[in-house]
């Protein structure tokens, strides 16, 4: 059935440029797929301007035959698939360019005919042919992407932090905080994020929208957001090394709550001191943050860690290795050793048996003949899960996702794939 469609790819463009009508129609179809009914033409124009900055590529599936009478015309795609390229921090400050997949929708009346499968397999193959070793996405549902070789590589959680008198940090401040005009984040946010990006395994380079959102320049409704407040953190040298952008949720929300819109801290002290600031906001008893790390130093720095109510922990970044030797050789490893990995790939992009040899933290990866005894047998999705050090191979062995053929090799993999600090991704896309 997917042969009845023409798949077309074109770049995002801003208003006034050739191709805008096609790009806008595509964006409308995405809105339909995600049940958005309120986007105005102005909002779409602002979004498309940010997509152009990101260099997004839009893929659409268009009906080739006659469309049903009075139904949406043929120039409205029945399926959408967006991509952009950003760097992924793969641990120890190393960066790898990644194919980011987003805006995946298939019109209800055309679903389950293989359109997603076709767009995904064609796109991953093209990215691999282009020399890209990993793809990544954030998923609307947990059941869709494993079949294409993606594995969960980082987690996040929503927290509600009790900031009444109970909140007390066991931390001696080394810097200071000061309130700022939110618009300063248009310049400040990318510079601070860049530092965080370079020291956080699992971090993905941010799209243009983030600085606009953090500064209140562009809210989720497409307009300026006057409710946004911003506070900066200054390190001991006086330089800005962190910020938080936040909103008061109003007097109807009880307990009175501030919600974190974006919290980016380039040092451990900046992180705790921004929390100290949030907890000190008067007339507020709770701070909520929907994108908090699971492995959170805040919990360990609090006199009473039960100030944090965190019930909702979930998958965040899904990674898909497209080229096993290139991806594994790009990483730094904190433990030397050797592993033979037998990797299966449902899309046939990069399966095989590989010897991973680590010397002085550097990897050499050699394909070895099929039949060579392997230490670990795993699907590419499991390898992608452990790649950023955020998911433990021993746990995946216990879950049956990794088969350990040589005793102790899951633990060896855990030591080899460890990263220097907790894996966390602050970028949704
Ligand atoms: C990265 C992102 O953008 S995440 C956002 C994903 N989009 C959404 O959630 C929007 C609403 N959903 C949709 O638009 C569609 O249902 C999609 C995009 C999820 C699926 O599109 P379809 O064209 O129907 O998928 P397609 O027919 O290619 O199915 C491919 C496979 O995935 C499976 N599949 C598709 N959707 C789902 C799902 N929601 N849950 C479980 N399995 C699914 C199919 O059964 C099929 O399995 P198989 O090939 O192993 O037999």
Describe the fold and architecture.
This protein folds into three domains: 2-132, Aminopeptidase; 156-313, Aminopeptidase (3-Layer(aba) Sandwich), CATH 3.40.630.30; 324-378 and 391-416, SCP2 sterol-binding domain (Nonspecific Lipid-transfer Protein, Chain A, 2-Layer Sandwich). The protein is built from eleven helices and 19 strands. A seven-stranded mixed beta sheet has the order 1-2-3-4-5-14-6, with helices on both faces. By secondary structure, it is α+β, with helices and mostly antiparallel strands. The protein has helices at 20-33, 41-54, 115-129, 185-199, 209-214, 268-280, 297-301, 324-330, 380-386, 393-398, 409-416, and strands at residues 5-11, 57-63, 79-89, 95-106, 134-137, 151-152, 155-162, 176-180, 229-234, 240-248, 257-265, 286-292, 308-315, 318-321, 337-344, 352-359, 362-368, 376-379, 402-404. Strand 3 (79-89) and strand 4 (95-106) form a beta hairpin. The two termini are 30 Å apart. The mean pLDDT is 97. The structure holds acetyl coenzyme *A (ACO). Residues 33, 101-106, 111-117, 137, 139-141, 143-144, 147 line the site of acetyl coenzyme *A.
Provide the descriptors you would attach to this structure in a database record.
single chain; 429 residues; alpha+beta; Aminopeptidase; Nonspecific Lipid-transfer Protein, Chain A; 3 domains; seven-stranded mixed beta sheet; 19 strands; 26% helix; binds acetyl coenzyme *A; Acetyltransf_17; SCP2_sterol-bd_dom_sf
Order of helices and strands: EHHEEEHEEEEHHEEEHEHEEHEEEEHHEH
Physical arrangement of strands within the biggest beta sheet: 1-2-3-4-5-14-6
Compute the CA-based radius of gyration. Answer: 23 Å
Q: Architecture of the largest domain, CATH level 2?
A: 3-Layer(aba) Sandwich
At the fold tier of CATH, the topology name of the largest domain is Aminopeptidase
Count of discrete alpha- or pi-helical segments spanning 4 or more residues: 11
| Terminal-residue CA separation | 30 Å
Task: Identify every distinct bound molecule in the structure, by name, code or SMILES.
Answer: acetyl coenzyme *A
Task: Tell me the strand percentage band.
Answer: 25-35%
Weakly predicted, low-confidence segments: none
**What structural category arises from helix and sheet content?**
alpha+beta
Overall number of structural domains:
3
Identify the CATH class of the largest domain: Alpha Beta
By CATH, the superfamily of the largest domain comes out as Gcn5-related N-acetyltransferase (GNAT)
Write down the overall mean pLDDT: 97
Give the strand tally: 19
Describe the biggest sheet? Answer: 7 strands, mixed
- Proportion in helices: 25-40%
């Amino acid at each position: 059935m997917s042969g009845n469609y023409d798949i077309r790819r074109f770049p995002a463009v801003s208003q006034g440029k050739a191709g805008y009508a096609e790009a806008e129609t595509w964006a409308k179809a995405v809105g339909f797929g995600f049940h958005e009914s309120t986007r105005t033409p102005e909002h779409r124009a602002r979004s498309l301007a940010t997509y152009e900055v990101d260099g997004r590529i839009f893929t659409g599936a268009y009906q080739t035959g006659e469309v049903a009478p009075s139904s949406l015309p043929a120039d409205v795609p029945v399926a959408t698939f967006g991509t952009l390229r950003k760097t992924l921090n793969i641990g120890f400050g190393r960066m790898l360019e990644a194919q980011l997949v987003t805006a995946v929708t298939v019109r209800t009346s055309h679903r389950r005919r293989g359109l997603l499968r076709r767009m995904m397999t064609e796109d991953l193959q093209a990215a691999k042919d282009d020399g890209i070793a990993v793809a990544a996405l954030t998923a609307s549902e947990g059941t869709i992407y494993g079949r294409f070789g993606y594995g969960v590589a980082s987690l996040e959680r929503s927290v509600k932090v009790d900031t009444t008198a109970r909140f007390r940090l066991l931390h001696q401040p080394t810097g200071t905080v000061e309130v700022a005009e939110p618009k300063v984040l248009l310049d400040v946010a990318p510079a601070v994020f860049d530092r965080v990006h370079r020291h956080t395994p699992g971090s993905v380079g941010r799209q243009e929208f983030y600085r606009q959102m953090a500064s209140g320049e562009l809210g989720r409704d497409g307009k300026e957001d006057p409710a946004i407040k911003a506070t900066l953190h200054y390190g001991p040298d006086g330089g800005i090394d962190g910020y938080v952008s936040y909103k008061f949720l109003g007097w109807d929300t009880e307990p009175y709550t501030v919600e974190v819109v974006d919290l980016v801290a380039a040092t451990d002290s900046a992180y705790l001191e921004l929390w100290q600031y949030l907890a000190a906001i008067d007339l507020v008893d709770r701070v909520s943050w929907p994108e908090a790390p699971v492995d959170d130093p805040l919990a360990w720095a609090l006199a009473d860690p039960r100030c944090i109510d965190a019930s909702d922990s979930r998958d965040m970044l899904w990674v898909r290795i497209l080229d096993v030797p290139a991806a594994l050789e790009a990483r730094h490893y904190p433990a030397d050793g050797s592993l033979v990995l037998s990797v299966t790939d449902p899309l046939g992009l990069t399966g095989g048996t590989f010897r991973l040899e680590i010397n002085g933290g550097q990897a050499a990866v050699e394909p070895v003949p099929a039949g060579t005894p392997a230490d670990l047998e795993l699907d590419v999705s499991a390898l992608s899960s452990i790649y950023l050090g955020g998911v433990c191979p021993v746990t995946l062995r216990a879950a049956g996702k990794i088969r350990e053929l040589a005793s102790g090799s899951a633990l060896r993999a855990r030591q080899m794939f460890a990263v220097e600090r907790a894996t966390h991704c602050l970028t949704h896309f």
